[in-house]
Design brief:
The protein has 7 helices and no strands. It has 160 residues and is an all-alpha fold. Helices cover 75% and strands 0% of the residues. It has one domain. The longest helix has 35 residues. It starts with 12 loop residues before the first helix and ends in an 8-residue tail after the last helix.
Length: 160
């Protein structure tokens, strides 16, 4: 598999990798939301999400945020580093959490966000997702680095 992923699609390599990063971020966010479902289930119920689809719906902003952030941090600059991968994961997780925090505030107001244990719950969830995001961004950066190094190397009998 080369760095272009699917050369016949008409998209540039950077765009394909950015879309793939968004899909990867969505998958990781869905897994993280499922692991945090005890806390996030209550949150989903409070903001009116259907129970059956609440975890994938909570992860859905990561699809768009992941693609945009990967393009901005990694592809646009050509920075295929582990630090850029970790920053991608962290910023994608925080953007996803921020999107749902804004949704919560739009329904319940800022006063409700500051009431009782809500700030602690928001902090725990954002902290856990930020840590998870940082950790899952590094393997994707590894895959991208390998793809970039293989596409830049000359073709030899061993690389075919």
């Amino acid at each position: 598999m080369d760095a272009d992923l699917s050369p016949g699609s008409g998209l540039s390599s950077s765009r394909r990798w950015s879309i793939l990063a968004g899909v990867y971020a969505f998958g990781c966010a869905t897994l993280t939301a499922t692991l945090l479902s005890n806390v996030l289930g209550v949150f989903a119920e409070v903001i009116g999400l259907p129970a059956a689809l609440s975890m994938p719906l909570l992860a859905s902003p990561a699809l768009v945020a992941g693609a945009a952030i990967w393009w901005a941090i990694v592809e646009r600059r050509g920075a295929y580093t582990y630090l850029a991968g970790a920053a991608f994961g962290l910023l994608t997780a925080l953007a996803t959490g921020a999107a749902w925090t804004v949704r919560f505030v739009s329904i319940w107001s800022v006063e409700m966000l500051a009431a009782g244990p809500v700030p602690l719950l928001v902090g725990v969830v954002l902290g856990a997702t930020a840590l998870a995001g940082t950790l899952v961004g590094v393997p994707f950066a590894y895959v991208r680095r390998r793809g970039a190094s293989r596409s830049n190397s000359p073709t030899t009998a061993n690389s075919l």
